[in-house]
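Sanity check

After download, print the first record. It should look like this:
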Amino acid sequence: MLLLSSFQFSAQKLERVLEQTEGFSPEAFKASGRCFPSPVSSVSEELKRYVEKLKLDGTLRSCVEKAEG
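Expected structure tokens:
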């Protein structure tokens, strides 16, 4: 979940910077799933699926548990 949260935080920071850019469209930046998903929502959804896969196969647990010894 940390990876997903980090990405979402970075996307929010990027959006704030881009808002200062002429021609930037916050609606397009945030658009999700209508005809074409935004790059941010696409990556966010992909990260969610990947984290869920890591949870299900036990990889995530083995990465965050303390090693015995």
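If your output differs, re-run the checksum step. Summary of this record's structure: Residues 2-64 form one domain.
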